[in-house]
Amino acid sequence: KHPKRSHHATHMVDIRIGSILQFIRDDNITCEVLSKNKVKFEGEEHSLSSAALIATNNMGFNWKTIAGPLHWKYEGEVLDDRRRRYEEGND
Questions:
Q1: CA–CA separation, 13 vs 84, rounded Å?
Q2: Residue pLDDT, tens place only, 3-15
C-alpha cells in the first residue's frame, strides 16, 4: 500500500522549508528545515539525526547514534508520530 520509506524524508510530512522544529528534551533548542532531509542547526546543515545527536550530547550525554525523527517535533508533534499518522491516513 505504501512505498518503501526513505529515511528522514518521510518524517518531514507537510512541513514547509523554513519551518522550525523543536528538540523534544528542550523546546528552546531548535533547528530550521532546509529541505526534505536537511535542517540548519547551530548555523550548519545537518540531517535530523546528526542535529539530534549534537543536541543530545550537548546536554551531557555521550551517545554515538540517535534516531532523529524521534527527537524533533513540529507544532508539538514528534516527527515519527507525524509520519505514522500521515501514513495511516489520519491527517
A1: 10
A2: 444 444 557 888 9
